Amino acid sequence: MGVGFGLLFPALATYLVNWHFDKLHRIGEYLYAHWQTVGTSWQFVGYVQQNIPFLWIIDTTPLILGILAYLIGRKQDQLERLNARQEVLIQQRTDELHQQNARLRREITVRRRTEAALRQATQQAQHLAHSKDQFLSAMSHEIRTPLHGIIGMADLLQHETLSAQQHTYLEALRFSASHLHQLVNDLLDYQKLEEDRLSIESVAFDLFELVAQLQTATAVLAQQKKLVLRVNLAPKVPQWVVGDPLRLQQVLHNLLSNALKFTESGEILLAIRLAADARPDSVGLLFEVKDTGIGIAPQKLAMIFDRFTQADADTTRRFGGTGLGLAITRKLLALQGSRIQVDSEVGRGSRFYFVQHFAPANHGTVPGKQPMLQTEHPTWPGMRVLVAEDDRINQLVIQKLLTSCQIEVTLVDNGAQAVETVASQETFDLVLMDLHMHEMDGLEATRQIRRLQAHLDQPLPIVALTAAVTEEARTQAEQAGMNGMLAKPMHKPLVYKVLETYAPAPEEVTPPPGIRVRT
């Protein structure tokens, strides 16, 4: 309607302009006279509509404009109300956004505080874990070092002339020291397993030699208890395989020690044969340890692999132990994808067994054949060994062990003296270096010796002596330039193996053995 009205006014203006003013004047007079006669009636309106159309338009214009004004006003009111509602909604939304922003700021603040607290807690946990590791390493060193002295001196006494009663006392001493050593090992190993910090190696090793070492280590206790200890290797079992020899030895030693502990009479058998579930890319071996001991009740079989658990309290009182050996065994095998199983009958004995798969050792992974030690107490006349050890008792034990093998020994008290001795151009075939010493530790001493001998094609072999045989210690020793590691208390066959590895050829041997102490 507004558009029509807008179009009407130009037409009306044009129509009026085309009229002469005098005509308009006469029309006005006529209309005035007629209005005085008939008044404002619908008859007049009809007359005007029939005779003067543009006057009808003028007459109805206020009505049309009023209607338009009403419609426009109504729309304006609607728009104002709509705008008012929109403003209210906008204000509400704005208030809500302010509230949300305030809430988000609070949440962000809380989250940042929580994250900061978590970071602090993580740092504290890491610091505590590191402190605990340092404590365990220090305690391991502090406990094993005197144990090395006790066990070493007991071994030396074995070769002395003793009465039967003295031999009995000595064996009791050796057994107690070995038992304490095993307890310490179990506790430290279980702690590593609980924290998933124990890794599995993959190296080529001589399975036959590993079994022979186990047999030697457990034969003494078997003889003391008058038990028969047998080892049965099936004909097709390979001599060389690829795996973790240290963990396999630990598992088998735990099982053999367990069998020896709970067997009063009869025999113990370690048997190894090919497993039935053959795989094309690996060698599966079935290991089993059988005994004629006290056996285990069926309802107790499931719990014997739990930590700190034995079959019953009477067993603990009677045989001792922490109840960690089998728990450690289960975890070690699980790390290697294997599972320990047991068959047992009360009063007749037990059979522990597991299947483990090894990668076959090819010619590239098998080390060069080492000459086998043919005697129980081998000798290396003229071999010269530098020993860096700060504990006097351990010095005595190592010295006696080496001189009994006709080795010339030079003793120093710390790493600084070891570096000075090597720098003096003295010739040695081997250095046995304790890791933990005052003034200068074995790691720093090794680094300095390696720098001194950087020009040599064949640097001096250095083997670590440590009471804390951990993966971290092994890594640190390798990074410092050490060639190997011997654990305290030292096991004679392992010491002999190291000596055999680094002994000079017979034509290189010089003068008779002796002992020199550097101060």
From TrEMBL:
Residues 138-360 form the Histidine kinase domain. Residues 384-503 form the Response regulatory domain. PROSITE patterns: HIS_KIN, RESPONSE_REGULATORY. Keywords: Kinase, Phosphoprotein, Transferase. Its EC number is 2.7.13.3. It catalyses: ATP + protein L-histidine = ADP + protein N-phospho-L-histidine. The modification 4-aspartylphosphate is found at D434. InterPro entries: CheY-like_superfamily, HATPase_C_sf, HATPase_dom, His_kinase_dom, HisK_dim/P_dom, HisK_dim/P_sf, Sig_transdc_His_kin-like_C, Sig_transdc_resp-reg_receiver. One of its GO terms (molecular function) is phosphorelay sensor kinase activity. PANTHER family: HISTIDINE KINASE (PTHR45339:SF3), HYBRID SIGNAL TRANSDUCTION HISTIDINE KINASE J (PTHR45339). This is histidine kinase.
